[in-house]
Request: fold
Amino acid sequence: MRNAPTGLHGVRVDAGAAQALGSRGASLLPGGIVAVEGEFGRGDLIEVRLSGDAGSRVIARGLVQYNSADLQRIVGRHSGEIDTILGYRYSEAVIHRD
Reply:
């Protein structure tokens, strides 16, 4: 299964992003991401983990709007900068809450 999570593909997020995902059900924006783990393509199911969490506890999963290489380029950046950095923008969100 191409979209099945393997535990090796995903992102690490800061505490603010983790709280927004958990308590408010918000979309994941690039500004809250601190690291990209593994290689994945646009539309793949990835796992979201809290940065600094020594365990492998997954706090969310979702279909990613950007491949891992492009996501590396926009990690920590404001959503409004995506088009300038990449030359295109699929979405402001890396993972949409829906």
Residues 7 and 47 are 7 Å apart (CA to CA). Helices lie at 15-23, 68-74, 82-86.
